[in-house]
Amino acid sequence: VCAVVSSPKALPWTQGAKTPRDFVYLKSSKWSRFTCISFTPTCTNSRDKWSKKMDFLLSVIGFAVDLGNVWRFPYICYQNGGGAFLIPYIVMAIFGGVPLFYMELALGQFHRTGAISIWKHICPIFKGIGYAICVIALYVSFYYNTIIAWALFYFYSSFASVLPWTNCDNAWNTENCTNYFLKDNVTWNNYSRSPAEEFYTRNVLEIHKSDGLRNVGGVRWQLMLCLFLIFTIVYFSLWKGVKTSGKVWVDAAAQIFFSLGPGFGVLLALSSYNPFTNNCYRDAIVTSLVNCLTSFMSGFVIFTVLGYMAEKRNVNVEDVARDKGPSLLFITYPEAIANMTGSTFFAIIFFVMMITLGLDSTFGGLEAIITAVMDEYPGYLANRRELFVLGLVVVCFLGSLSTLTNGGAYVVKLLEEFGVGSSIIAVGFLEAIAVSWFYGITRFSNDIKSMLGYSPGLFWKVCWVAISPAFLAYIIVSSLLKPPPLQLFDYKYPDWSITVGYVIGASSFMWIPIYMVYKLVWTPGSLKQYNKHKLSARGDFNVKRKHFI
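Structure tokens predicted for Transporter (549 residues):
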């Protein structure tokens, strides 16, 4: 006998049912369509859930829309032909980024566990992917929060009647400082520096006191205090959990992948706290659209600013920003804001926006680690979340100290290029292969059907099986064949630093083959038995859904 319910909220996984039962979900009052569900509960059904649907959606959007949307997309777009770049960008988003984004949301919501333990449900031999994701997330936290600390330093400095990066009369300025906004017919040469650039390089970073990676100098106590405040906010936000040419196509593919963020484990973690019947398909589409529109809006703004500044200096647009990285946030935008009416007010608002954008992504990245580790070791950590989060925050703070030195910007760029870079793309590639080839596209589609009531269309299946893995493999091969030259301002990274970078990248990815070898060596029995137990998933619950018209 089936119990009749009129809403998915009345189904047992939202009510904490403890015995197997059959339920009928009535789709209309005229019985024109209903769903019969056979449900067998397990311990995973008592998992915490988001208090409201909007909490989850805003958290995912907050992770996807980050500081990279503000500076990286506009530069990549300009570098590859401006408006023409939008064609490969949109194509890569449709056939690569969005399908992978949808896949991770569905995986996390169905299996309801973190990036490590989820592999016992998908393909146990690939469990090393979960450990690799955690290491990569740690590397990101080592440098990404430093960028937020820079923004906090600017936020504090903005509380002045005259913004300190508007003139050349400060103690940190040099004879090369040229305020071309206050003078007509200014001659701009290779040695000229704007007040905003000298404020960033000589006052915030004090990079002139460093000789490069060989001598990064001492720790900037002002930045360390800013970082301490950032991690304090992070801790009290997380401690209680969720309830509180060919190159053009390579750049387009890499940008959409890094922007949406599949492969970082964040989507798995956040979606694992969703109700079982949540419409993850709609969430994927909405988040992807918001992310792309934000990038487009940022592009319009920064193109306008760069064009105006280039006109004032009488130089080409590409010569305006000497470093095409985060310094666009701390030189180009502040310089433009300084010349607006009410510049102090707009500077404060702008850096508040930067801090909140950065914190949203930090919350997601660290939550991925917390969820993954706590789900893998519940016996040790189930009742010790506060202590574990505190320990994680302390590790991240200590790991960030090298980025707070006079030469910390050099370390930030090295970690950004190699600590994440090809490693996270390779992880995403293996994840797509494991799900679509080993777990099986038919089985994965049935999982989605059990949640949403309908199977994903042919387009999504083809993308998951072939197009998305090919898209990731293309990025990996292209980046390895033509590694980008490393340079920050006038400093060219030495050859040995590239080797160090590859070691950093390998230190995360190596967990995947290490775990495979470990399981192969230590698993008893024949190879046939091994294949049966380690290449096949085992489920912890059974949900069968039948539709009647």
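DSSP finds 19 helices and six strands in the chain.
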